[in-house]
Amino acid sequence: MTFQDTTVSQLDAIVNAASNAFTTYGASPAATRAALLRGLADALESQRTALVALADQETHLGTARLNGELDRTSFQLRGFATQVEQGVPFAFTDDPAVAGAPPVGHPHLMRVRVPVGPVAMFSASNFPFAFSVLGGDTAAALAAGCPVVVKAHRGHRALSHAVADLARGVVAAQGLPTGVFGMVDGRGTEVGMSLVQHPLIAAAAFTGSVRGGLALEKAAQSRPRPIPFFGELGSVNPLVALPSALAAKGAELAQGLAGSITMGCGQFCTSPGVIVVPQGAPGDAFVAQLADALKASTPHHMLTAQMRAGFDAGRAAWATHPGLTTVLGETAAESQPPRPFLAQINAAGFLADPALHEEVFGPAALVVRVAGTAEAIEVLQAIGGSLTVTIWGADEPSEEVVALVRAASQVAGRVLFSGYPTGVAVSAGQQHGGPFPSSTQPGSTSVGWAAMDRFLRPVALQDAPGWLAARQGQPC
Ligand code: NAP
C-alpha cells in the first residue's frame, strides 16, 4: 500500500476545516461530545480483527498486546465521554459580588474554562492505538471541545489511515462538521512542522524522542503567537530496591522486573532503565536472578529498523564502556529480534558519566550498585526528570526512607511503592509526565482524565449578563 504525503495546500485546508468546526464543536453540549467519543469507541471495536491484524503487520507488537491496547483505547474514549457527561469540562467557580471597596469588595466573577481550539496531535510509534489516531490525546481534546488534526506516525501508516477513515465515518454519521477530525501524513520535518506552525492550531500534543520533541517545541514557541506544546519525551524510570524488599521476595521481584524490562521489547515510555540495588550478597543474588530471568525471555522485533539501530548503538556503547560490567550480553543478528541486555556499575561510576543517565530505548537496563540510601538519592537526582520512580521496601517511615520518597517525588510524575512501572492505569488519580525530559509541561498529564485540562483554558467572566451566567460554564 502506498500513501501520499499531505501537501501544503491540503494541510491548510484540513486545519481551516478544523478551525471552522471549532465554532460549533467548541460550544457543543455534553451529549454531542459523549456521543462522538462513544461512537468512535464502538467503531474501533467493530473493526477490531482487521485493525489488530494491520497493526501487527506494521509494528510486530503481537495480537494479544494489540487487542489489549485496543481495549484500553476504547476504554479511554468512553471514559472521557463519562467525564463530559459528568460536566467536568463545564465546571466553574462562581464567586458572587461583594459590596464595598477593593480589595474586599469585588464584582461577580465566574471562572469558567473554554476549549483552546484545534489541537495538533502527534501519534506515538510505540502505542499504535492508545497513543495514536484515536488515542488518549485525541480523546482528551475531543472531550474538551477541541477539533483534532492528527499527524500520522510513519511506523504504522496503513493502520493510521484505516483508523482515520473510520473516525471520519463516525463524524459524518453523527452530522458533525467534517473538520472535527482530520489527519495529515508525511515527514515530521515538513508536514509535522507545518502543522505546529499553522496559525490556526492552538496547542500540540506529542509523544516521541527528545530530539523530535524539542524541534517541534521550538517551532511551537517561535511562532508569532506561541502555543502550548505538551511533549512526552524520554524517560529512564529508575527503580530502587531497598534491602528489606530483596530479603522478603527478591526472586519473585527479579522475575517480574525482567518481564517489565522486556515488555513490548522494552519500547514502553515507562520501561525501567536503571535498577538501583544495594551492594552485598542479597543484591548480588537479585542481579543474578534478574539476569537469568532476562536470559529466558524472548523479545519480539522492534517497531522500526531505526529503533533497532538506536538500541544496538546504545547497547554497544554500554558493552564497551570501561566502567560497566556486562551481566547479560548476548547479541542477535539484525534479522532477529534483539536480545535483552543487562550491565552493572557502581554509583560513583554512574554519577561520573552523564551519558549513562540517558534512555536506551529497548530491552536493556543498567544496574547501579549503591552503598545506601544517600547514594540512591544521588542516582535519582543525576537522572533527573522521569515519568516514574519505583521504590521497593519503603514500608516504614525511617528518616532515610522519607528522604528517598521526597527525592523521588522531586524527579518523577508517578512514584510507585509496589510492582513495576510498565502499565499505566487510565483513571482520575493518574499522573503521566514529570520534570523534563519526561514532559515539556510537568504540570500536566497525558494519561488519565486530567489529560483533558491541557486543552481547556480558564476565563473569568466578570459581571456576566444573565443569559451567559445561565449557561453554567457551557461555552457559547
Ligand atoms: P520521533 O522520531 O520523535 O517521532 C515522533 C514524531 O515526531 C513523528 O511523527 C516524527 O516524524 C516527528 N518528528 C521527529 N523528529 C522531528 C523533527 N526534527 N521535526 C519535526 N517532526 C519530527 O519518535 P519515534 O519515531 O516514536 O521513536 C524514535 C525514538 O524516540 C525511539 O527510538 C525512542 O528513543 C524515543 N521514544 C521515546 C518514547 C518515550 O515515551 N520515552 C516513546 C517513543 C519513542 P517522522 O515520522 O517523519 O520522523
Automatic annotation (TrEMBL):
InterPro entries reported in the protein's UniProt record: Ald_DH/histidinol_DH (IPR016161), Ald_DH_C (IPR016163), Ald_DH_N (IPR016162), Aldehyde_DH_dom (IPR015590), Aldehyde_DH_Superfamily (IPR050740), ALDH_KGSADH (IPR044151)
Keyword Oxidoreductase included in the entry's annotation: yes
Record keywords, A-Z: Oxidoreductase
The keyword Oxidoreductase is assigned to this record: yes
Gene3D superfamilies named in the record: Aldehyde Dehydrogenase, Chain A, domain 1, Aldehyde Dehydrogenase, Chain A, domain 2
One example GO MF annotation: oxidoreductase activity, acting on the aldehyde or oxo group of donors, NAD or NADP as acceptor
CDD domains listed in its UniProt record: ALDH_KGSADH
Domain Aldehyde dehydrogenase: 2-304
Protein name: Aldehyde dehydrogenase
